[in-house]
Each structure stands twice: as structure tokens, then as C-alpha cells.
Amino acid sequence: MPRILGRRLLSAAVTLFGASLAVFAVLDVLPGNAAAILLGTAARPDTMAAMAHQLGLDRPAYLRYGSWIAGAVSGDLGYSAAYGVPVRGLILERLAVTLPLAAIALTLAVSIGVTLGVLAAGRAHRWPDRAASTAAQLGMAVPDFWIGIMLILVFSTTLRWFSAGGFGGWDDPAAGVRSLLLPAVALALPQAAVLSRVTRAAVLEVLTEDFIRTARAKGVSAGRVLWRHALPVAIMPVLTIVGLQVSFLIAGAVLVETVFNLPGLGRLAYQALAQRDLVVMRSVAFLFAALVIGVNMLVDLAQPWLDPRLRRG
After folding, report:
1. TM segments (predicted)?
2. CB within 10 Å: which end of the chain, N or C, has fewer?
3. Does 32 or 66 have the greater pLDDT score?
4. Quick one: which of 267, 291, 279 has its CA closest to 87?
5. What is the pLDDT of residues 39-78, one digit of tens each?
6. pLDDT band at 105 (very low <50, low <70, confident <90, very high)
7. What pLDDT was estimated at residue 306?
8. Angle ∠(86,64,52) on CA atoms, nearest 5
9. Dist. CA 104–CA 63, nearest whole Å
10. Residue 208 CA: distances (Å) to CA of 126, 172, 203, 226, 277
11. In Å, what is the CA distance from 19 to each residue of 11, 13, 246, 293?
């Protein structure tokens, strides 16, 4: 296990290094003047030069990259050109919304997707399977921001069960969770649809194994065969998809947080793009990449723990 951990950490570090190079190249090195993007082409030359100096654009690219990485390691991400405050404070404030939102959405996606997938596999080629497959196809076809708009129309405008948007903070945890519930459902439903299809296929494959036939021959109930025997073996491909879905949740948060007017990291990225705040965009993009890489590394480490055969291999 320590050898597996070392390999995964090394792979994650190399991937994160490549992601940092890509983010820096796109925002700082490729043709284009970041100072001109921030100030506009009509800005005076001396103002442009002062902004370029403030951004460090008058230094070589490798020195700028080194300073950025050193600052990121120490927690100093620079100052936002649009807000005039440290980027670190902005990100920490917005993470308090985005991380709980992603956690709730992922929990809902796994709960709904795995349950529907197992039930569909247990009733394969019957009406429950066809109903679950139709719902999954619909969920994969509809974008999450459209689902968010429909949820607002139904549960906020018509039924008035939830607020249409906004976030009141965590002073009242129940109110905070309530304000995140609709956007979490909007994020979770498309991912639950994908998970249900993957779970169904994985469980159906396991149901053809000899140990399943043995369990049935011993008189084990159909529900116990599905949940206690088939699902634990079929969980590996499901777990892999869950790790990949984190990137889709983060990408979807950009639009969903905008639809629900949530002050999260996705909305901060959208605002930074609209305001051409390249310092914030660079830090947020790198943080998104780090979150995705970190979650996928945890998924890789969980697989040998769940399946002893991988540890022996």
C-alpha cells in the first residue's frame, strides 16, 4: 500500500505541474497583452506600463511562473485587479459555498444513480428498467442550468417552497443547506443519469458470474443478491465515474451558481472572466484543476482498499 500511495502522489504532482504550466501559458504567455485586456486598448501608455509592472509582465515568463507557484505554495495568490483585495480571501470566501454545494450534489447523484442502476439491473428488460433508462436518457440530454431554471419556476415561483436564489451564509446551517438544495439537485440529476447507466451495466455483468448463481442456488433472496453480492463487486467502474464527475460538477457550478445567484467559486470565475481579472482567473483555474486531480487521486487510492486483488497486483 505505501508503494501505491507513493506512485499516486507522484502521478498527481506531475499532473498538477502540467496543469499549472497550461494555465500559466494560456493566461500569461500566449500572444496578447494582459494589461491591455484589463484596461482596454484606449488606455494611456503610462497607465498601461504601470499596470504591466503591477502584474509583473515586464519580467521574463519563467520568473513570473516561479513567483506565482511560490506564492501559491505559501498562500499568497496576489491581488485582484477588479476587487482590489487579496485573491486568497476571495477564494476562501467562495469555497464556503462551492464545496458544500458540490458535496450535496455528489451525494445526491451517487444515491439516486446507484439506486436506479441497481433496481434497473434487477428488473432488466422489464418496465422498471425501461422507465429508468428513459429517465437516464432524459437526464443526460438536459443541461444542468436548464434544470435549475425549471426548478426555480416550479419550486420557487409557483409553489414558493424555496427562495429563487441567493445565499444567507452559514450562521443558520439549516437555511444554508436549504438555499443550496435546488442548485445541488440541478447539478446532481445529469450526473445521476450517467451513474445509473454505468451501475446498471456493471451489475448486469456481475450477475452472470458463478458466485451469483451459487448464491441463488443456496436460496439467497433477489434483493440480497443485488445489494450484498453484486453491487460490492460492481462498484469499481462506478467509483471511477464518480471521480470523473467531480470535473463536471465544478464546470456545471459556473452556470448553476450564476442561475441561482450564489456567491460561489464558479460565479467568481464567471465574474473574473467578465471583468477580465486575469489574476483571479489564473488562481481559480488552477484551484479547479487541483481539486479534480486530488479527488481522482483519492479514488485511485480507494480502489485497492476496496478490492484486495488490486493490492496483490
Report:
1. 95-121, 142-163, 175-195, 233-260, 280-302
2. C
3. 66
4. 279
5. 666 677 777 777 777 766 667 778 888 888 888 888 888 8
6. very high
7. 66
8. 70
9. 40
10. 18, 50, 9, 12, 55
11. 12, 10, 16, 9
Which residues pair with residue 79 across a beta bridge? 86
Ranges 30-39, 51-60, 100-109, most confident: 100-109
Instruction: Write out the three cell numbers for 200.
Output: 446498471
**Alpha carbon distances (Å) from 73 to 66, 67, 120, 267, 287:** 11, 10, 47, 24, 12
Q: For residue 60, give every residue at least 6 positions away whose Cβ sits within 8 Å of its Cβ, in sequence order, or none.
A: none
Can you give the pTM of this predicted structure?
A: 0.82
Taking the CB of residue 47, how many other CB atoms lie within 10 A of it?
11
All domains of the chain, ordered by start, with CATH? 2-74 (no CATH), 88-312 (1.10.3720.10)
